[in-house]
Design a protein that fits this description.
The complex is a heterodimer. By secondary structure, chain A is an alpha/beta fold. Chain A has a single domain, classed as Rossmann fold, CATH 3.40.50. The mean pLDDT of chain A is 95. Chain B is α/β, with parallel strands linked by helices. Chain B folds into two domains: 224 residues, Rossmann fold (3-Layer(aba) Sandwich), CATH 3.40.50.970; 115 residues, 3-Layer(aba) Sandwich (Rossmann fold), CATH 3.40.50.920. Helix content of chain B is 40%, strand content 20%. Chain B is built from twelve helices and 14 strands. In chain B, the strands form three sheets. Chain B has a seven-stranded mixed beta sheet with strand order 3-2-4-5-7-6-12, with helices on both faces. In chain B, strands 9-11-10-13-14 form a five-stranded mixed beta sheet, with helices on both faces. In chain B, β10, α10 and β11 form a beta-alpha-beta unit. The termini of chain B are far apart. The mean pLDDT of chain B is 97. Classes of the chains: A alpha/beta, B alpha/beta. At the A-B interface, β1, β2, α2 and α4 of A face β2, α3 and α5 of B.
Amino acid sequence: MAKSAKVPTIIDKPMGFCPGCGHGIAIRLIAECLETLGYDSNVIFGIGVGCSSLLGGGLQTDRLHCPHGRASAVCTAFKRVMPETMVIAYQGDGDAYSIGLSQTTNAMYRNEKFTLFVINNTLYGMTGGQMSSTTMPGQKTSTSPLGRDCGATGLPMRFPEMVASQFNAAYVARGTVINPAHINKLKGYIINALEAQKYNEGYSIVEILAPCPTNWGMTPVNAMAHIQETLIPYYPLGEFKTREKK
Amino acid sequence: MAEIMKGNHAIAEAAVRAGVTFYAGYPITPSSEIMEYLSGRLPELGRVFIQAESEVAGITMVMGAAACGVRALTASSGPGISLKQEGISCISDEELSCVVINVARYGNGLGTLFSSQCDYLRETRGGGNGDYRCIVLCPESVQEAVDLMALAYELSEKYRIVSTLLTEGALGQMMEPCVLPEFIDPPKVSWGFDGKYSYKKVGIFDRNPYQEGIDLRKKHECIKENEQRFETIDVEDADYVFVAYGLPARSVKGAIKELQAEGHKVGLIRLITAWPFPEKAFSVVNSHVKGFISVEASATGQVVEDVALYSKKSGFGHVPAYCLLNIYGIPAIRDTKENFKKIIAGEIKEVF
């Protein structure tokens, strides 16, 4: 894979993420992959509500700030109207899975031919760290101050596994941004997801485990270690559905 | 040549001819025939039809299509239109254009299947959260509904605002002769996405809500000034002026004809745009008018509030505003005449 040292041209200006946040790495990777595939000037983003919204101020691309949770419905329309354009839904776990589960699942159910990237940091970041569908058992958040009680609130949702096992998606993977080796692997997943769309193979999704030092109350380094030690055992990394060989 | 068509089918075909290339929606009586018709017709023409998983998804898909600059449509009724308010508010916020059809049915919550005008206040006040209005067009016949469809898009694109075609259950379900409009190829809008970022958007966090508010007010004032549409009948020398829209207005036309034959001096203001409210119609009303009478299919009286407000604004603050409410359905000519006589006898009191 070509190494891209320069900042992709569609990245316009700094985005206002907290120190140690994973969004910046994910967005940089997506932008690099779009450039690699020649789609950096043929792309539309449907942007979620939450920290993912910050993408909207930083990329020189067509993008729409979607109603909370509805990016998959918006992107369904983008792709149906403009099938030759790369369409990307960029959302967090609260947006895509909690409030947006209906739209996210139904777009996947219809096998809409766009790509969803979900930044999973196990809580609602922008609103102050509330519990989401992916909050870990026992995790303290601003709405689970005693730690998440899964008996009353459900188990953390593993959406990519559901997509891969139940539905007819083209490509499903989960990666993370905690070190260069994982970042390189994640970049491969992103390329695959976008290529699945490019070749009209069907719906593709990559979930990205990302640190939220601010709301986890951790240093950036400890937040990366928390992903390695606590999240990855529950949210395994890898490809859950690979593209069919043509 | 005129064809006999069911209202919902005629409206759907008019939408096709107005250049609608995208429909997304969810079934609900009495609007479902619109999507049923389009589910076959749009793919036949290489256009997009999606049966969405909910009204929420349907309007949000319309938002996506509208952002790509194509003519997008959704239709629903009652609680379905309630669910669409999130999307309508967001489309308004993004200043995209689209048309929403409300084939109104009566009732709160899930409501009923009766034809009604109970959504008047919601439709004319924006409907969702925030500070916006939608242009509301309310036809009285299948022919007028068909004729208003292209206009709904033209206005929506001219002002970058949501247009609502506010029909009624009975208008959607009834069959009437109508002449369908010609096919048009709509002009390309400047704000449609092309994937190349040709249309520059202000960053989500770089927006200036104060300046946007000032611009929004100017836009709304401009629409109010230029886009009022209405029909008047004999208001210049009327003692009493009826105000109504849609099918009740058609019924009132019959009532005033009979009342005039009996010697009563009555007239009618028929709203074609419910927003902007046609206040200009009041400027031609007899300066000695004795009362305005709203005739509407609601239980609580909604149109009458606007009648009172705009008659006051037009210098008729001292003139009473009455309200005849038949809750749902279409008022019978007989009932309107009887109630009119009760009004002049002082047996029905004014609302304002």
